[in-house]
Amino acid sequence: MEENLTVERSRVPLTKEDFVSDQMVKWCPGCGAHAILSSVANVFPKIGYKKENFMMVSGIGCSSRFPYYVNTYGFHGIHGRANPIATGIKIANPHLSVWVATGDGDSMAIGGNHFIHIIRRNVDLNIMLFNNQIYGLTKGQYSPTTPMGKITKTSPQGTIEHPFNCGELVLGAQGTFFARVVDTNPKLMTEVMFEAAKHDGTSIVEILENCVIFADGTHNDVTAKEVRDDAQIVLKNGEHMIFGKNKDKGIRLNGPHLEVVEIGKNGITENDILIHDQYDQDPGIHLMLAKMAPPLFPMALGVIRSAMFPTYDDMVEEQITFAKANSKIKCVDDLLNSGDTWEIK
Amino acid sequence: MTEKKNTVVEMEDAVVRFAGDSGDGMQLVGNLFADVAALAGSEIATFPDYPAEIRAPHNTVAGVSGFQARISSKKIFSSGDLADLLVAMNPASLKSNLKWAKKGASIIVDADTFEEKIIEKAGFPKNPLTDNSLKDYKLIKAPITSLTVAKAKELGLDAKSASKTRNVFALGIAYFLFNRDFKATDIFFEKKFKKKPELINVNKEILRAGFNYAETLEAIHSTYKVSSLKKSEKGKYRNISGNVATAWGLLAASEKSGRPLFLGSYPITPATEILMELSQHKSLGAKVFQAEDEIAGICSAIGASYTGSMACTTTSGPGLSLKSEAIGLAVITELPLIIVNVQRGGPSTGLPTKSEQSDLLQALYGRNGEGPVIIVAASSPADCFYAAYESAKLSMEHMTPAICLTDGYIGQGSEVFKIPKVSELPSINPPIAKPNDPDYKPYKRDAERLARQWALPGTEGLRHRIGGLEKSDVTGNVSMDPLNHEIMCKYREDKVNKVADFIPKQKIIGEESGDLLVVSWGGTFGSVFSAVKELQAEGHKISLAHFRNISPLPKNTADIFKKFKKIVVAELNMGQFVKYLRLTLPEFKYYQFNKTQGLPFMVSELKENFIKNIQEK
């Protein structure tokens, strides 16, 4: 991974076992978080940094117990604040590979302000957002991503709130990297996390995660075996956006809108289908892709956007380097004696 | 033209107050006046007194911005009670500032602004310049606006820009009255208007025009000379404001400890200058992060602290409230963190630009759970340097957050500062864990301080996880064990208490026993000290214990208290330190003297209260 030269690489090959901590994993059996943990332990050795240079940060919620289960440096913060804690860590030490484990409540409700600002600044770190559309740790209240009308413990007649679409929020905040995966596809999850690590800037990986206890089946319209081939499209850079059980459906741009078309019908050929360009600086198509959802569209998975922009932490270092080279003040004694002073002898 | 006045009156001490509409540039000319005095070797102390609004309605009392500068040939400790010279740029500033002028003081007004409507707007029933109500003062009616505009026109400036230099004309008058030369101020103009060079000459000329105008005035019978400080210690000096001193104290602690400085902060009056100052010093490696809110400010600092930075956050009262939960996180993760709180009048938004000492209880107890922290309070603008330095030293060496309390009065006020050498400051030795230490455990403590070690991410062999959940003793693993929680609560408490072994003993100013011990803390030092000194000189058996270390208290506190017949605690709140003393040292009886007007103590009111306390047996 030559893109990121600031993090020191491991001199010895690492394995999954290097990243397993000695703590008992206390998520419910069947929780999607287990698959995410496994993907992380798989991808960290592939990324290849020294194990001491990984840093796992979290807020509060089921997702946020994550750091205790990964044998790296880890910091379990307070509710909603994983992102500013991680920002401080990365600015203070850009030689760390910083990973945030957070949830739909942690980052889009109580920590919503921090979420949009970390994205806007493009701090070089990776945020895994576990979106189970429910508050699990407090036992089943609706979250900012709970579908409208859903009955939960605090919405006995159904929620009357419009949910956030995570991708739309990320791109609206000028996100440079947005990817979406489902907890039932660990292979894709590992690939996407590798891509996230490669990206210089704030990488958001939204993981559609199942909560077996309080929102079981909440992503079934995307992940259920019987629908998933038609309800998902895994985007690959440079390839046509084709999906469906028989690979005969595609996404086409019609005027200002996307539409699903069938290849071979009404004279439509593969050439009419959009080619995915995750590196496009213009987020227009990325936003349309992020907003697609069943039943009219498949849910876009994989890396939707990965655009190059300067990172906050790089610019911090540049300004410091420039100031050190150009300022007359090299130490605190210089500062204390600068400007108007006088001496009494 | 009259001939040049030759009568020069020697003054030991003078207080000058500049007042005008906010936007009239009173803070600027006040600072320039003080700087010039300091450069000439006088002792100075300043006090900005300005409204919360940037531009409150023109010509109203609400919009008046004042700046008080005291200059002296002796050592001074406060910006003075009442002014010898008041410069009032409009009727409203005369209305609101007359109460701060001594009887017999000189008052210079911009006579051009005393028009019927403006006088009425200021709340005067009649024109105060003509109704004889100012007969006890030396009134100088100067047509400042018209003279400035006329001069500016000569220099080719339009009327609107010209009226913006009225403050400089007024400063010229003050320079004449105090026999100042233009050199330092000329240099200031040259720097300030580097990008608008046409304004350099305009300002220089208008300053001289004010000076020359004053020279011709019949009403001015004499000018003043405040000579330079005679008995000052040898050394190099400068003028410094409390907020800048705080920033520099933090920079010094960072350099001394070898821990890079990280500041996560959000602008808030009256603490913003610390954030602005530190952002100027990237050449010293300071990383300054202006966060999206107060919470992000402190949380980013906690993250930076985990990685081994000397992490700070700066704020004022309402911001401290927002940071409460995160301070608890730093307490339980036992990480160093310096929280500077420049106090202002509360509750809520309260009096943003006025000073108060009413965040003490919040600093001591304002957290969920048992969350003890170290508290150090600065005594004066220059002492902010040392209070910030000490907070950083204690926080890093004892691995626990420290709150450094200053206030709007000392934060924005300034005084002469004897420049220290960094090499002569106390050493700072944070307990950094060594790579691959086989005995490293995240919550293993040293016996002396009970501090755990600081293991920095990136270091080989020290990978560990910590967070806001209760920790198991030694291992630091998550623990919900009831007895363990009790042990950890005690450790955190004892750790802060043990700081008392490492701080100086409480000093006493005056005799070690007597009729009255005055107890004060923080930014009131100047006025309380002056009041006690004056009463001592008058023969009273009065002493002062002024506290800088609040949590923990110095070990000898009770020994000091027991030698006095009476103890009075003077503070700018409704009695917060006294409450704390009643809890911590309940064996003593405490009297209290409090003020919550958003203003500093006046020496006179303190003396009056202390005498009353001595007399009432």
Notes on the protein architecture:
The complex is a heterodimer of chains A (345) and B (617). Chain A has a domain at 16-218 and 310-322: Rossmann fold (3-Layer(aba) Sandwich). Chain A is built from eleven helices and twelve strands. Chain A has helices at 33-47, 82-92, 104-110, 112-121, 166-172, 186-198, 220-223, 228-231, 284-291, 312-326, 332-336, and strands at residues 54-58, 73-76, 97-103, 126-131, 177-182, 203-208, 232-234, 242-243, 249-254, 257-262, 299-306, 342-344. The longest helix of chain A has 15 residues, at 33-47. The mean pLDDT of chain A is 95. Chain B has 617 residues and is an alpha/beta fold. Chain B folds into three domains: 8-226, Pyruvate-ferredoxin oxidoreductase, PFOR, domain III (Pyruvate-ferredoxin Oxidoreductase, domain 3), CATH 3.40.920.10; 238-421, Rossmann fold, CATH 3.40.50.970; 514-615, Rossmann fold, CATH 3.40.50. In chain B, the strands form five sheets. Chain B has a seven-stranded mixed sheet, sandwiched between helices. In chain B, strands 3-4-2-5-6-7 form a six-stranded mixed sheet, with helices on both faces. A four-stranded parallel sheet of chain B has the order 19-18-21-22, sandwiched between helices. In chain B, α6 (166-177) packs across α8 (198-216), α7 packs antiparallel against α8 and α9 crosses α10 (272-279). The relative contact order of chain B is 0.09. Chains A and B meet through β1, β2, α2, α4 and α10 of A and α1, β9, α9, α11 and α12 of B. β12 (342-344) of chain A pairs antiparallel with β9 of chain B.
